[in-house]
Each structure stands twice: as structure tokens, then as C-alpha cells.
From TrEMBL, chain A:
It is found in: Nucleus. GO terms for cellular component: cytoplasm; nucleus; proteasome core complex. PANTHER family: METALLOPROTEASE TLDD, PROTEASOME SUBUNIT BETA TYPE-1. InterPro entries: Ntn_hydrolases_N, Proteasome_sua/b, Proteasome_suB-type. Keywords: Cytoplasm, Nucleus, Proteasome. The keyword Nucleus applies. SUPFAM superfamilies: N-terminal nucleophile aminohydrolases (Ntn hydrolases). GO terms for biological process: proteolysis involved in protein catabolic process. This is Proteasome subunit beta type-6. It comes from Neoarthrinium moseri.
Automatic annotation (TrEMBL), chain B:
This is Proteasome alpha-type subunits domain-containing protein. PANTHER family: PROTEASOME SUBUNIT ALPHA/BETA. The keyword Phosphoprotein does not apply. Transmembrane segments: none annotated. SUPFAM superfamilies: N-terminal nucleophile aminohydrolases (Ntn hydrolases) (SSF56235). InterPro entries: Ntn_hydrolases_N (IPR029055), Proteasome_alpha (IPR050115), Proteasome_alpha-type (IPR023332), Proteasome_asu_N (IPR000426), Proteasome_sua/b (IPR001353). Gene3D superfamilies: Glutamine Phosphoribosylpyrophosphate, subunit 1, domain 1 (3.60.20.10). GO terms for cellular component: proteasome core complex, alpha-subunit complex. Keywords: Proteasome. Belongs to the peptidase T1A family. SMART domains: Proteasome_A_N (SM00948). It comes from Neoarthrinium moseri. GO terms for biological process: ubiquitin-dependent protein catabolic process.
From TrEMBL, chain C:
Keywords: Cytoplasm, Nucleus, Proteasome. Belongs to the peptidase T1B family. Non-catalytic component of the proteasome. This is Proteasome subunit beta. Pfam families: Proteasome (PF00227). InterPro entries: Ntn_hydrolases_N, Proteasome_beta4, Proteasome_bsu_CS, Proteasome_sua/b, Proteasome_suB-type. It is found in: Cytoplasm; Nucleus. One of its GO terms (biological process) is proteolysis involved in protein catabolic process.
Length: 264, 309, 261
């Protein structure tokens, strides 16, 4: 009797894995569906200064628990007149689903290039920001699964950062963190860039307490801030690490820095 | 011509009372004025060559190729109206591609010739069209190997159903297609202005014996183009040559341009050298000998050495 | 005789009941691949000093059935690049035919040495895969492209069915991602380290990976294809057998299958 019984306790395991179907779907429907999205992890960060803007991102690309590559940059120069992008005036960072990010970048870049060829001048950051919003909203019902941040210098030469949700809602901000470790980095930025929860000691009690006055940070401090933010994120988020790519845009052009991050 | 004024030459699809289609015959006339094209079917490959007439000194030497690739293993050269030839090539490429789409295997040279013959013939039937003003030479090498189907992943059974077919298959193929749509397979084919001289030279080669190999064929093709050019020697020209060998040969079964070294060597042929010497010695021919000297340094230097010796 | 042509050649209604002509409707639902059917497993590849080594075994599986044991999953392009396919074999064949056609078209302009390099080819395939995923009709493959870039430097990159692309000194698809990639990363942790490897070293490392994969991946085979792409061209071997296997470790493995102790 025990010989052919289906009782694994008596006869040892009948299946090599536990999640065998409990019952056959004879009359029910079995749904197979292709999922066109995935999350490739990673994190981005942008801070606007008085006369500069910094865009940064880690360079890890993941699929589940696997690291696809340790070097896949997330920050791109946009709208230069050639493929080398030497004369680009806009930066774009994308994080989320990498294939959509790449497609969005290529799309925005070719639009900016067409603008440059047609008008014989580069697109302004504010115009590009609006255009990016419309591109993303065009795909409202099959969105680019991407958290994008656009950076550059505005008409007055001040640093400008625009942040987006996946369907194109956007606003200009002083700073923004995006992607996997956004929730880890953003509160740090609130405190260190916008001086949230910082008060002048001894200025009063309760509502009388005076907030510390906000002032733009100098470039060297911001660079350290970015590195600290990512070093902290790497400690606490498995999808962030390997390398830190930083692009700094100033009146003199765009400078790129690659720094190491922990590879664990 | 007797036909002129009778009205039977005004359109396709009308026969003259003695059974001729004059439009087709006029198309042949267009071919007879074009630069000479030659094809040789050697024992292990095919050579295509053309006398490319230089119509302007402003054209870049070596650019504007006249011989076209249709599929990996197929090439086409033609004499006559070049735009008609270009369209012929476009159509041949479409045929080769659609053959691959349906049969998942490369089109054979004979099948391509058949398809193109049918296509040209259709242009002799209707009022609304005119025949092609070209005669095309189609050369190819059908693989002698057990050719894999495009996208095939395994080697298949070695015996039994689906196994190898015994016996020889594949090999070089050469076809010439005329404006009427008529096509035959040839050992050696020539068309264009110098076809008579070229054919006479080809006949001397005894190609049917199957002894001439590909490299010799390249040299002969070059020589024949120069010989055939003799009646037309006030015109400048460039020699253009392509070849197709079997899978183990120099082109690995592909249609490719003859490498520069081999082409230069072919152009140093004794006959060619002699022709160039003779040409330079004739003062009454309007000919830019300086140009030739720069274009054919080897041939000319050799020629000069011979005359001084 | 029945004079209504629409009845000719059909079962008689009075005998078999009303004929169901629904299959002839031109506007039925279109169906797309929702899961792969016959599949190939891992592809592994590693860059070295002056080229790339790439390997994949010769098996196409139908679920757990080793269905086709003679399937060549490395495909060459224009004599300069190699594409290694993991995933659905029918989609691989479709892509292979597509690439053949592309190579022929590129060849129309007979200018020598002017064809798509590995970087161009990878971008092309990635765009094709992304386009198809965006139509919800994916090509179910994860592929590696090995070759040289525009500066004749070694090039290796991956593209998957979603259109995700990435490049790295070593790459592997499927189980190779878990099993082979850590081994290769030990020897080529970054581009600089890979640029130190010789051809023989790289081939040995990849062969070692194929062995580990055969030991541990149940959908793998001990016959495989391996290609080395360099400036000199492609050296492709399609019937290589795993050498120096040792199953001594199997004795020490407990707790699987029908073992009771």
C-alpha cells in the first residue's frame, strides 16, 4: 500500500520542489502574461547650486539579486551637436527600468539635436524640461518606467534641476534623489541642502524657534555631500554600489568624475 | 531600317507582319553601344569584368561600381542603359531575398536567371512599357557543400530520411539575359560594344574543356576587355572585375571584387602591354597618355622597357 | 450536384451538423509569445587582451526534455562578430535569418571593410528587442554580442528580451549569471584586468565555466561551441567536448533525489 501512495513522509519526496500545483486548472484559466518591465535598481541624485548643477548616479545595474554590470552610467549629456556630446548644455539622469531609460535618453537627445540643427542654437534647459514632460506624458498609458532628473544652467546662469515622475509630472527643485535609494538619500538632502529641521540655537522655544537661514552651498561642499549620500546609501541598499558617476555643469562646460563605491 | 514608317515599331505588343518585335530589336541596339561586359565560367569559379567608360574627368577613379552583388554568392554585370541595369539589380535582389524568405536557402544561379528572364520578358508584352535596354550577365557559385538551411541549428540526420543526397551538386553558373527575356547558360559570355572581339577571344579559350582555373580566368577576362576595347580606343575606361570561387577558394563562395594585387597583375599581361605600346605610338589618336601612365604604372613601365630593349 | 460552391469539399450538414467556419474569420485575436518553448541555456563570454571568447552548449531543451542535442547557438555575423543566443530557439532562428539578410544587404555596397561592427550590431539587436517588447510581442532571447568596436578594441555586450543592454569585461546569461560570472570575475574584475588576459588564459577560464555549468545546470550539455573573435577573424569550433570531468564531488552531496540518508 505504501509503495505507490503519494505520501512523501512514507516514501520520500515525490517532487523535488515544494510548489507543485495543488490542483489542475481543468476548467479555470491559466494566465501567462509577458511583463514588459523590470527594475534595474540604482540611484540618482541632483543638486542645483548658485552657478552650477551636479548630477550623480551609481553605476551598478542589477537584475534581482544579480549584478548585470558594475559600470553602466545613468547620467547623460543631452543635445550636443555630435555623438561625442562635447558641446552639450543639458544633463539627464534616468533610473528605474534601464531599457526605457536608454530609449528616453535617445529620444530626448535626438529631439534636442534636431532643435539645434533647425534653430542654430542649443535648447534652453527650461524648454527641454517641458519637452521631456510631454515626451513622457505621450506614453501615459504605457509609461517609460523611469525616474528622470534634468539638470543644467538657466537663463541667468543659475543651476537648475527638474525632477519627473514616470508619466511626466515635473517641477524645478533645489535638489532631488531618485531611484532605489531615494527614500534614504532625500531626507539627508532635506536636512543638508535645504536645512530642514535646523534652527538657530537659543532663538526661542516652540513656534518662536527661528529656522537657520538658507543659503546656496559652494561646489566643493556639494561634491562631498553627494559622495557622503552615496556612501551611506551603499551601506543600506543592496542595489546601489560599484561606482559613482558625477557630472558637474558650470559656465565652463561639463566635467565628469568617476569615483569608487563599495562593490559588495 | 525597313521597319521605319510602317508603324510596327511604335509599340511593344505589336508584331510586324514578318514576326518581329521592333521595340525589342531597338533595345538590343542600346546594348550594342554600351561598355563591354564579359563573364567567364572557369572550372572552380566565375569572373565578371566590365569596361567602365569614363564619361567625365570629374568622376572619382575606382568609385561608382558597375558590377553589383545580388546575394552572397551572386553577381551581375550588364551593358547598355545603366539606369535600366540598376533596376534589374534591384529586382534581382528582391528575387534573391524572397527566395530565401520562402525556401530558407540561397537562390541558385539558374533560378535567379530564370526569374529575371521572366521579368524581362514581361516588359516585351505591353503597350505601356518598353523593354530593358540592357543585356545582363549573371554569375554565381552554388555551394557544393551540404548547404545548411538559413537559420538551421543542427546538422540533421546523417543517413535515412533527411540525410545527405549522394552525387555532385552545386558549382559555378553563368547566364546571359537579353532584352527579349531570352537567357542561356554559357561557359563564356560577352555583350556590349566589343562583344564580337570578346566572343572570338572567349572561343579560343576552350572553356568547355573545364581546364581553365579561376586565376587564369581573371587574367583572360582582363585581357579580353582590353582587346575588345581596341575598336573604341579614343575613349578612356577603367577595368572592373569581380569573382566568385567555391567554399575553399579565395572568396569562400562569396561574390567579391578581385583584389587589387591580382587585378594589377592581370593588367600587366603581355597582350595588354603590347596594346598600350601600340596605342601610345599612334600620334593621331586624341588620347591623354599622361593619364594612362598614372593609371597603369606597371603596364606602362613594362611597355617602355620593352620598346627600349 | 450541389450548386453552391461554399458547400463543396465540406462535411454534409445533414450528417455532421452545421459546419463551424469560425476558423476562417479574418479578425480573430492575434497571439503573441507569452513564454518560450524550446530553449537554450547559458551563454558565457569573456574579454581578453586582443579579443573576446564566447561559448554556449549545443542543447535545445523542451522543458526538462533534452530535445535537440545538436543545436549551434553561436552565430557569426559578417565574419567579424559573434552573437550567442540564450532563450527561445525559434526566435533565435528568426533573428539569425534576419541577420543573414542584413549581412547580404550590407554587402551590396562592396566597399571592403565597411560593414557593421560589433557595437553597431549590438545596438541594432537591442533596438529590435526593445521594439518587440514594446509591441508586447517579445523575442524571447537573452543574447551576447562579441567582436570588435570601431577602434578594433574588444567589444562584449548583452541585450535581453526587454531591450535591457549592458556591457562588462565578462558576461553570462541564464544560469551562467549565477555560476559562471563569479568565476570569470575572479580573473577579470574590471576592464584593466581583462586587458591583461591572454587568449589561452581566457579560453581556459571559459572552458572551466562550461564545465561548472555542466555539473550544476540540469538543462546543459557536455558538447558545446566556442568562438574566439580577434582582429584576425573568428575561430569558431562547434563540436567541442568537455574535458577532464570529475564527478568525485557528487559522492559528498546529500539530501537530493531519492537519497534517504
Amino acid at each position: 500500500m505504501a509503495m505507490f501512495s503519494q505520501n512523501p513522509v512514507l516514501n520520500g519526496p515525490n517532487y523535488s520542489f515544494a510548489d507543485v500545483p495543488v490542483q489542475d486548472h481543468v476548467d479555470g484559466f491559466r494566465e501567462h502574461r509577458f511583463n514588459p518591465y523590470t527594475d534595474n535598481g540604482g540611484s540618482t541624485l541632483a543638486i542645483a547650486g548658485k552657478d552650477f548643477a551636479i548630477m550623480a548616479g551609481d553605476t551598478r545595474l542589477t537584475a534581482g539579486y544579480s549584478i548585470n554590470t558594475r559600470f553602466s552610467p545613468k547620467v547623460f549629456k543631452i543635445g550636443g551637436s555630435t555623438s561625442t556630446q562635447d558641446d552639450a548644455n543639458i544633463l539627464l539622469s534616468v533610473v528605474g527600468f534601464a531599457a526605457d531609460g536608454e530609449a528616453l535618453k535617445e529620444r530626448l537627445d535626438s529631439i534636442c539635436k534636431m532643435y539645434r540643427y533647425r534653430h542654430n542654437k542649443p535648447m534652453s534647459v527650461s524648454a527641454c524640461a517641458k519637452r521631456l514632460s510631454t515626451i513622457m506624458y505621450q506614453r501615459r498609458f504605457f509609461p517609460y518606467y523611469v525616474y528622470a532628473i534634468l539638470g543644467g544652467l538657466d537663463e541667468d546662469g543659475a543651476g537648475a534641476v527638474y525632477s519627473y515622475d514616470p508619466v511626466g509630472s515635473y517641477e524645478r527643485e533645489q535638489c532631488r534623489a531618485g531611484g532605489a535609494a531615494a527614500s534614504l538619500i532625500m531626507p539627508f538632502l532635506d536636512n543638508q541642502v535645504n536645512f530642514k529641521n535646523q534652527y538657530i540655537p537659543g532663538s526661542g522655544v516652540g513656534h518662536a524657534l527661528q529656522e537657520r537661514e538658507r543659503q546656496p552651498l559652494p561646489r566643493d561642499e556639494v561634491e562631498v555631500l553627494v559622495k557622503d549620500a552615496f556612501d551611506s546609501a551603499v551601506e543600506r541598499h543592496i542595489e546601489v554600489g560599484d561606482g559613482l558617476q558625477m557630472m558637474i555643469i558650470t559656465q565652463n562646460g561639463i566635467e565628469e568624475k568617476i569615483l569608487p563605491l563599495k562593490k559588495d | 531600317m525597313t521597319s521605319i514608317g510602317t508603324g510596327y515599331d511604335l509599340a511593344n505588343s505589336i508584331f510586324s507582319p514578318d514576326g518581329r518585335n521592333f521595340q525589342v530589336e531597338y533595345a538590343v541596339k542600346a546594348v550594342e553601344n554600351g561598355g563591354t561586359s564579359v563573364g567567364i565560367r572557369a572550372k572552380d569559379g566565375v569572373v565578371l569584368a566590365v569596361e567602365k567608360v569614363i564619361t567625365s574627368k570629374l568622376l572619382k577613379p575606382g568609385a561608382n561600381k558597375r558590377i553589383a552583388t545580388v546575394d552572397k554568392h551572386l553577381g551581375v554585370v550588364y551593358s547598355g542603359m545603366i539606369p535600366d541595369g540598376r533596376h534589374f539589380v534591384d529586382r534581382a535582389r528582391d528575387e534573391a531575398r524572397s527566395w530565401r524568405d520562402t525556401f530558407k536557402t540561397p537562390i541558385s544561379t539558374s533560378d535567379l536567371a530564370s526569374r529575371m528572364g521572366g521579368y524581362l520578358q514581361a516588359y516585351t508584352l505591353y503597350q505601356s512599357v518598353r523593354p530593358f535596354g540592357i543585356t545582363a550577365i549573371v554569375g554565381g557559385f552554388d555551394s557544393e557543400l551540404e548547404a545548411p538551411v538559413d537559420g538551421e541549428v543542427g546538422t540533421g540526420p546523417s543517413v535515412g530520411a533527411g540525410g545527405k543526397v549522394e552525387g555532385k551538386h552545386g558549382g559555378p553558373g553563368l547566364y546571359m539575359i537579353e532584352p527579349s527575356g531570352m537567357y542561356w547558360g554559357y561557359y563564356g559570355a560577352a555583350t556590349g560594344k566589343g562583344r564580337q572581339a570578346a566572343k572570338a577571344e572567349l572561343e579560343k579559350l576552350d572553356l568547355a574543356a573545364g581546364t581553365l582555373d579561376l586565376k587564369e580566368a581573371v587574367k583572360e577576362a582582363a585581357r579580353i576587355i582590353y582587346v575588345a576595347q581596341q575598336d573604341n580606343k579614343d575613349k578612356e575606361f577603367e577595368l572592373e572585375m569581380t569573382w566568385i570561387s567555391n567554399a575553399t577558394g579565395p572568396t569562400k563562395g562569396r561574390h567579391e571584387e578581385v583584389p587589387k594585387e591580382l587585378k594589377d597583375e592581370a593588367e600587366r599581361h603581355d597582350t595588354i602591354t603590347a596594346l598600350l605600346v601600340e596605342r601610345e605610338s599612334k600620334p593621331n589618336i586624341e588620347y591623354d597618355s599622361q593619364k594612362v601612365r598614372s593609371r597603369l604604372p606597371f603596364a606602362m613601365n613594362a611597355a617602355r622597357l620593352m620598346t627600349h630593349a | 450536384m450541389d450548386h453552391r460552391p461554399q458547400h463543396w469539399g465540406r462535411p454534409r450538414d445533414d450528417v455532421y451538423g452545421a459546419y463551424d467556419a469560425s476558423y476562417m474569420r479574418p479578425n480573430g485575436p492575434t497571439t503573441h509569445t507569452q513564454s518560450p518553448v524550446v530553449t537554450g541555456t547559458s551563454v558565457v563570454a569573456l574579454k581578453f587582451k586582443d579579443g573576446v571568447v564566447i561559448a554556449a552548449d549545443n542543447l535545445a531543451s523542451y522543458g526538462s526534455l533534452a530535445r535537440f542535442p545538436d543545436v549551434k547557438r553561436l552565430r557569426t555575423f559578417a565574419g567579424t562578430s559573434v552573437v550567442g543566443f540564450g532563450g527561445d530557439v525559434s526566435d533565435m532562428q528568426y533573428l539569425d535569418r534576419h541577420l543573414q539578410e542584413l549581412a547580404i544587404d550590407e554587402n551590396y555596397t562592396s566597399e571592403k571593410g565597411h560593414t557593421l561592427n560589433a557595437r553597431n550590431l549590438h545596438k541594432y539587436l537591442a533596438n529590435l528587442l526593445y521594439h518587440r517588447r514594446s509591441k508586447f510581442d517579445p523575442l524571447w532571447n537573452h543574447l551576447l554580442v562579441a567582436g570588435l568596436d570601431e577602434d578594433d578594441k574588444p567589444f562584449l555586450a548583452a541585450a535581453d528580451l526587454l531591450g535591457t543592454t549592458f556591457t562588462s569585461p565578462s558576461l553570462a546569461t541564464g544560469y551562467g549569471e549565477m555560476l559562471a560570472q563569479p568565476i570569470m570575475r575572479r580573473y577579470a574584475k574590471d576592464e584593466e584586468a581583462a586587458a591583461q588576459l591572454t587568449r589561452d588564459q581566457a579560453v581556459d577560464i571559459v572552458k572551466e565555466c562550461m564545465k561548472v555549468l555542466f555539473y550544476r545546470d540540469a538543462r546543459s550539455l557536455d558538447t558545446y561551441s566556442i568562438a574566439v573573435v580577434t582582429k584576425q577573424g573568428i575561430d569558431l569550433k562547434e563540436d567541442v567536448k568537455l574535458e577532464n570531468q570529475s564527478w568525485a564531488f557528487a559522492d559528498r552531496i546529500k539530501g537530493y533525489g531519492t537519497q534517504t540518508v
